[in-house]
Amino acid sequence: MKAVAKKWNVGGDVKSPTYVYYKKYGESFVHFDLYRVEDYETFVNIGGEEILDAPGTTAFVEWPDVIATRFSPTVTIRIEKTENPEERKFSIERHRMPE
Questions:
Q1: Parallel, antiparallel or unpaired: strands 22-25 and 75-81
Q2: Residue 59 burial by CB count (10 A; 0-12/13-18/19+): exposed, middle or buried?
Q3: What architecture does CATH give domain 2-71?
Q4: CB atoms < 10 A from the CB of 43, how many?
Q5: pLDDT in tens, 31-84
């Protein structure tokens, strides 16, 4: 996540929002961790729907299952562990934008 934030020129100390549902960096860069969000209503109550609907928002969502029926990703990035604990395997899939 830190490398992605750096590429987007996001300043500050970028950390995973493990103990909160999301962290916002700058005006339009948001990192969600929805592991503890049980349903879509909870997502709405934390302000997630409003954030994702805001024009110009770039959002990175960990554990997106709870919002998958309402929001479609434009890009999916999967990060997998490898046999080497110092390495990760990245795969990037671009999706078609809804018309």
A1: unpaired
A2: buried
A3: 3-Layer(aba) Sandwich (3.40)
A4: 22
A5: 899 999 999 999 999 999 999 999 988 888 988 999 989 988 888 888 888 999
